[in-house]
TrEMBL record:
The keyword Cytoplasm applies. The chain holds residues 246 to 611 of 611 of the full protein. It comes from Cytophaga hutchinsonii (strain ATCC 33406 / DSM 1761 / CIP 103989 / NBRC 15051 / NCIMB 9469 / D465). Keywords: Aminotransferase, Cytoplasm, Glutamine amidotransferase, Repeat, Transferase. The gene is glmS. It is an enzyme of class 2 (transferase). This is Glutamine--fructose-6-phosphate aminotransferase [isomerizing]. It comes from the Bacteria.
Length: 366
C-alpha cells in the first residue's frame, strides 16, 4: 500500500506530479484557453464580485491560504484576510455584504475550521470549501467549493494536499482575474500554460532527493532551524519550518526574510542552519542581501534557487535547484525540497514520520 516506499509521507511527496495533475484534470486547458471549476457555478459571481475574501484554515492549510492571499490580490485584485480558524471563531468578526469566505481543509473535519464556517454562515457569508476528502463535514457545510482530487493523504504531515490546495486556489484566482479583466488575455494564457507544466517541473524538483539526503546528513543534529522567504515564498518558509518541527522535533521557525533584522538575526551563529527560499523572482536582489547578512554572522545557508543560479551558489553552503516558473506558481516547486529535507532529517533521527508524537491526522476537537 506504500507503493514500495518506506513511509506514506515519502510516497505522497513523490506522488505530487500526479496529484497536482489530478487537481487540474478536466479543469485546465491552456491551448483552448479553458479554465473551469465545476463546483463553483451558482455562486461564481459572488466570488468574482467579492469586495473582500476571508480565508479560514489551520496548520498547513492556513499556509496554503497565505499563498492564496498573494494570488487573489495579485491576479484578481481582491483584498484578502487569512485567519486561523480558531481565532476567527472566537472573535466577533465583521462580515459584510460583499464578503466571501474560503475554508481550506484537507480532511474537511477540522473542528475549528468547521465552527468558523458555521459562524460566518450565521452572519450571511457565502462559503467556498476547498477540501480533499469528498463528502466531508466542511465540504457539506460549504455553499459551493472545489475538491483537491489529490487522493487519500495518509501521512500525518501534509504534503500533497498542500500543493493541490495551492493549485486549486491558483485556479480560482485565475478564473476571477480573467473574468474581472485584472489580468490580460496573454497573462491568462501564460498562467494556464505554466500551470500545465507544473507536474513535470515537480518531477524535476524531486530529482534533488539524493542531494537532499546528503544535506540532511549534515544538519540532522541541529537544535534549531530558521526558514526565510519573501513574497509568494514567505508562506513556504512557514510551511518548511512546520514540516521540520512536526516530524523531526527540531525547533524551527519561518520568517519573512526582511523581518530577520527585527529580532531573529540575534540567533544567528555558526550553529544555526538557515534555509532560504531564493528563486529568481521580484524579491531576488533583496533575498540575496538577506543571505549575505546571514553569512556575515556565520550562519549556515541552505538555499533553494532557480535552476542555473550561479550567484547564490557562491554564497550558500548548499544550493538546491528547482525549475523556473511563473512567480505565482513558485511555491508549488520550492516546497518540494523542504518536504524532502524534513523527511530525511526525521528518518535519520529515528522519528516515526508517518505518525509523529502528539499529532492526529484530523483534529476533530478544538
Ligand atoms: C501539518 C498538518 C496540520 C494540518 C491541520 C489542518 O502537516 O497536517 O497542520 O494541516 O491540522 O488540517 P486540515 O487541512 O485537515 O483541516
Amino acid at each position: 500500500e506504500k507503493g514500495g516506499y518506506p513511509h506514506f509521507m515519502l510516497k505522497e511527496i513523490f506522488e505530487q506530479p500526479k496529484s497536482i495533475k489530478d487537481s487540474m484534470r478536466g479543469r485546465v486547458n491552456a491551448s483552448l484557453g479553458h479554465l473551469q471549476l465545476g463546483g463553483i457555478l451558482q455562486y461564481a459571481n459572488k466570488l468574482t464580485n467579492a469586495e473582500r475574501i476571508i480565508i479560514v484554515a489551520c496548520g498547513t492549510s492556513w499556509h496554503a491560504g497565505l499563498v492564496a492571499e498573494y494570488l487573489f490580490e495579485d491576479i484578481a485584485r481582491i483584498p484578502v484576510e487569512v485567519e486561523y480558524a480558531s481565532e476567527f471563531r472566537y472573535r466577533n468578526p465583521i462580515i459584510r455584504e460583499g464578503d466571501v469566505v474560503i475554508a481550506i481543509s484537507q480532511s474537511g473535519e477540522t473542528a475549528d475550521t468547521l465552527a468558523a464556517i458555521e459562524l460566518a454562515k450565521s452572519k450571511g457569508a457565502v462559503i467556498f470549501g476547498v477540501c480533499n476528502v469528498v463528502g466531508s463535514s466542511i465540504s457539506r457545510a460549504s455553499h459551493e467549493g472545489a475538491y483537491l482530487h489529490a487522493g487519500p493523504e495518509i501521512g500525518v504531515a501534509s504534503t500533497k494536499a498542500f500543493t493541490a490546495q495551492v493549485s486549486v486556489l491558483a485556479m480560482m484566482a485565475i478564473i476571477v482575474g480573467n473574468k474581472k479583466g485584472t489580468i490580460t488575455e496573454s497573462q491568462y494564457i501564460a498562467l494556464l500554460t505554466e500551470l500545465e507544466t507544473i507536474p513535470q517541473k515537480v518531477e524535476k524538483a524531486l530529482k534533488s532527493n539524493d542531494q537532499i539526503v546528503e544535506i540532511a546528513e549534515q544538519f540532522k543534529d541541529a537544535k534549531n532551524f530558521l526558514y526565510l522567504g519573501r513574497g509568494y515564498n514567505f508562506p513556504v518558509a512557514l510551511e518548511g519550518a512546520l514540516k521540520l518541527k512536526e516530524i523531526s522535533y527540531i525547533h524551527a521557525e519561518g520568517y519573512p526574510a526582511a523581518e530577520m533584522k527585527h529580532g531573529p538575526i540575534a540567533l544567528i551563529d555558526a550553529e544555526m542552519p538557515v534555509c532560504v527560499i531564493a528563486p529568481q523572482d521580484n524579491s531576488y536582489e533583496k533575498i540575496v542581501s538577506n543571505i549575505q547578512e546571514v553569512r556575515a554572522r556565520k550562519g549556515r545557508v541552505i538555499a533553494v534557487v532557480t535552476e542555473g543560479d550561479t550567484h547564490i551558489k557562491n554564497m550558500a553552503e548548499y544550493t538546491i535547484e528547482v525549475p523556473a516558473t511563473h512567480e505565482a506558481l513558485m511555491p508549488l516547486l520550492t516546497v518540494i525540497p523542504l518536504q524532502l529535507l524534513s523527511y530525511h532529517i526525521a528518518v535519520m533521527r529515528g522519528c516515526n514520520v508517518d505518525q509523529p508524537r502528539n499529532l492526529a491526522k484530523s483534529v476533530t476537537v478544538e
